[in-house]
């Protein structure tokens, strides 16, 4: 390479770095630095108004072990439990529901684009405060559901779903399943990718609809199911808004809707224990990363990335 | 020539910007409150801005204390806190953390304290320095739905009752109320439950906290008695079952069981009467907590404080605005008793024609003699509220016995004192 060419290459490199600078700055200032700082904070006692005090591993110790002087945080373990239950019930339900609706939407019918839009709307609304308030009214003791139950079906004294610790979490699971829009759209795109010839060949061989579903649709969709599973799992672990609004920010009744992120928020902002909250954030990161890794490991035999088209 | 014109024009423009900025200062005022407080506060701001050209006041409003303090904490930690911050009983927590400005050097010049009741000044004075100016006094009270009781032909409650009289009264109205409407809201199950609990511990002679000795007089047996009192009400249908009660957060009028028409009696602070009354067409009235007459267990509390952020760039103007809110007759007329009955004689002289303000004054006159000095708030008040709420619910839902609950409350209090 002669000098001229090298100079030119350097200049080109420099100019591409110059173009990258805004992004790099954003990454370092708004992502990397806060992450490292929060890792540091997780080893401190920090009330936001006074400088952080280094306390080593105590925050983590209080979460999982505890002793007489620093008793174990039972509310932490409870929030972990609540969140796991929420994730493991709501995500599979939501995926099944999304796939079922996607298959309906995959037919050649008139007005299909209209229906697709219609069924996507809950996803746009679902995270909103208005829907959470609506949910309260639907499932309250004197709410719409109970009016129907007692008025139409003559049920005596139906429970106040949303303020009863036995049922409150399930109303939130229902709210989450109702927002099936985005996995549905992704499933729909996946369904369109499956070559029609497979189905034609299968029906020539005498395979019924059910057989076709299990032998063609599911295997062909498996990478997409897996993708949706991971994405939905991660976002379910981080759910916050619904529980915050529906329970009035308390995670009640009886901490039955005290999601992990809601408790993190309470600890950090209401109880002024930002160091502890940072430690909780890192524990959540590790949990999500571990579960994702586990999912990838387990997916080997179930997900086929076949040659497709 | 053209160039000179351009330069001159630029200079002129920048001069306008510079002068415009130096001529106008913006104060940020963070407070929480409901619709009626927002309206009243805005009127006061308009009056202040009309009288003080060049000073703008921007309110930063939250619906409740929780949101308010989350927001303010974050802003202060980030170096962008508001100038004037409304504080509640947790003011000492903030003084301890060193984020409030001592106002002593403004007293006499910008802030006229000579017309303010000494007890109100004392309540805002911590470690010998004045940190907060009381917005007025308020008292805990039981609120009852007068129209509802009249509609069903039930007798109205007496203002002062003993606990046995109170229980008998609840029993007497229970049979008249329609199904689904309860004689009383479960006032232990509120998110601000440390006040009813605090009242009861004073009534019981075991106040929550003594700042001098840094100890509590509450024992697990005393806390158990409180849980049993409400268990008795719950078992007899005088307060709603736990799952109904926890459907009403009672953080303000919008989530109130009284306003929803599902209970005849509930708990409020007297300064909330306006906001509650504005949310319903039923007429509301105030009575004392039971047993106050004999024990003087009620207390007058500074409703809130106006405080100044230590990092404010315009502390003097902030104090000037506070002085206007607290002492000026113009502001007193529009603010009324919304942040408590004023502790300033000049503001009181202005009077208020509002019927709710009159009701509150009437209550303060009758309940005043049944009160004694306020108990200092427990350290880490927010966490106390939240966790007491949880323990109370465990008992209400029958998950643990009142005895276990009493022990948990005692452990909680001692832990928060040590924290």
From TrEMBL, chain A:
Keywords: Cell membrane, Membrane, Transmembrane, Transmembrane helix, Transport
Residue ranges of every copy of the ABC transmembrane type-1 domain listed in the record: 80-295
Annotated Gene Ontology cellular component terms: plasma membrane
Lipid bilayer topology: Multi-pass membrane protein
Transmembrane segments: 20-43, 80-105, 117-135, 167-191, 212-234, 274-296
Coiled-coil regions, chain positions: none
Subcellular location: Cell membrane
One of the GO biological process terms: transmembrane transport
Database matches in Gene3D superfamilies: MetI-like
InterPro entries assigned: ABC_transporter_permease (IPR051393), MetI-like (IPR000515), MetI-like_sf (IPR035906)
Family as reported in the entry's similarity comment: Belongs to the binding-protein-dependent transport system permease family.
Record's protein name: Putative ABC transporter permease protein YesP
Gene: yesP
From TrEMBL, chain B:
Signal peptide coordinates: 1-20
CDD domains registered for this protein in UniProt: PBP2_TMBP_like
Keyword RNA-binding: no
One of the record's GO cellular component terms: periplasmic space
Chief place where the protein resides: periplasm
Stated family: Belongs to the bacterial solute-binding protein 1 family.
Protein's UniProt name: Extracellular solute-binding protein family 1
């Amino acid at each position: 390479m002669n000098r001229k060419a090298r100079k030119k290459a350097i200049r080109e490199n420099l100019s591409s770095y110059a173009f990258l600078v805004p992004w790099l700055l954003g990454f370092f200032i708004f992502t990397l630095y806060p992450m490292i700082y929060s890792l540091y904070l997780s080893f401190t006692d920090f009330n936001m108004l006074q400088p952080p005090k280094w306390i080593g591993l105590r925050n983590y110790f209080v979460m999982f072990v505890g002793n007489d002087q620093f008793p174990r945080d039972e509310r932490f373990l409870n929030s972990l439990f609540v969140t796991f239950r929420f994730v493991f019930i709501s995500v599979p339900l939501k995926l099944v529901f999304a796939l079922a609706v996607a298959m309906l939407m995959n037919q050649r019918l008139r007005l299909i684009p209209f229906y697709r839009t219609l069924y996507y709307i809950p996803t746009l609304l679902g995270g909103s405060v208005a829907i959470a308030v609506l949910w309260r009214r639907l499932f309250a003791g004197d709410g719409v559901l109970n009016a129907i139950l007692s008025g139409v079906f003559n049920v005596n004294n139906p429970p106040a779903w949303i303020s009863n610790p036995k049922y409150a979490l399930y109303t939130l699971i229902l709210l989450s399943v109702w927002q099936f829009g985005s996995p549905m759209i992704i499933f729909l795109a996946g369904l369109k990718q499956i070559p029609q010839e497979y189905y034609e060949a299968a029906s020539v061989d005498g395979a019924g609809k059910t057989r076709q579903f299990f032998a063609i649709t599911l295997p062909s969709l498996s990478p997409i199911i897996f993708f949706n599973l991971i994405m939905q799992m991660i976002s379910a672990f981080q759910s916050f808004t619904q529980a915050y609004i529906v329970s009035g920010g308390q995670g009640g009744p009886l901490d039955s809707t005290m999601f992990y992120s809601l408790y993190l928020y309470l600890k950090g902002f209401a109880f002024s224990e930002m160091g502890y909250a940072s430690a909780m954030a890192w524990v959540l990161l590790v949990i999500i990363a571990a579960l994702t890794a586990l999912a990838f490991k387990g997916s080997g035999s179930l997900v086929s990335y076949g040659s497709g088209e | 020539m053209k160039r000179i014109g351009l330069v001159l024009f630029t200079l002129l423009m920048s001069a306008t910007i510079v002068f415009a900025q130096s001529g106008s200062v913006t104060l940020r005022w963070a407070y929480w409150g409901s619709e009626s407080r927002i309206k009243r506060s805005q009127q006061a701001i308009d009056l202040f801005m009309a009288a003080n050209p060049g000073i703008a006041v921007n309110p930063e409003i939250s619906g409740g204390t929780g949101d308010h303090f989350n927001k303010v904490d974050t802003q202060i930690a980030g170096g962008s806190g508001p100038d004037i911050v409304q504080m509640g009983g947790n003011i000492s927590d903030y003084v301890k953390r060193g984020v409030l400005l001592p106002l002593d050097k403004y007293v006499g010049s910008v802030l006229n304290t000579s017309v303010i009741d000494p007890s109100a000044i004392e309540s805002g004075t911590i470690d010998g320095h004045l940190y907060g100016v009381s917005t007025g006094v308020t008292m805990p009270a039981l609120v009852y739905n007068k129209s509802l009781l009249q509609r069903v032909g039930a007798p109205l409650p007496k203002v002062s009752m003993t606990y046995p009289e109170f229980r008998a009264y609840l029993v007497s109205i229970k049979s008249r109320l329609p199904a689904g409407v309860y004689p009383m809201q479960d006032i232990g199950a509120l998110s601000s439950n440390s006040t009813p609990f605090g009242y009861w511990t004073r009534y019981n002679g075991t106040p929550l906290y003594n700042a001098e000795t840094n100890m509590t007089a509450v024992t697990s047996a005393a806390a158990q008695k409180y849980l049993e009192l409400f268990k008795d009400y719950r078992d007899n249908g005088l307060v709603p079952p736990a799952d109904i009660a926890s459907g009403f957060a009672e953080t303000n009028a919008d989530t109130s069981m009284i306003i929803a028409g599902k209970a005849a009696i509930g708990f409020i602070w007297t300064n909330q009467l306006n906001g509650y009354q504005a949310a319903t067409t039923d007429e509301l009235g105030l009575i004392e907590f039971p047993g106050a007459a004999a024990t003087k267990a009620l207390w007058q509390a500074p409703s809130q404080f106006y405080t100044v952020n230590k990092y404010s760039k315009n502390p003097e103007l902030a104090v000037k605005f506070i002085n206007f809110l607290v002492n000026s007759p113009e502001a007193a007329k529009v603010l009324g008793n919304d942040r408590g009955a004023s502790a300033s004689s000049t503001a009181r002289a202005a009077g208020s024609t509002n019927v709710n303000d009159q009701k509150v004054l009437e209550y303060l006159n009758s309940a005043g003699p049944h009160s004694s000095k306020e108990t200092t708030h427990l350290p880490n008040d927010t966490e106390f509220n939240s966790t007491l709420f949880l323990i109370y619910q465990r008992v209400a839902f029958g998950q643990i016995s009142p005895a276990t609950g009493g022990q948990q409350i005692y452990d909680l209090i001692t832990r928060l004192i040590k924290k």
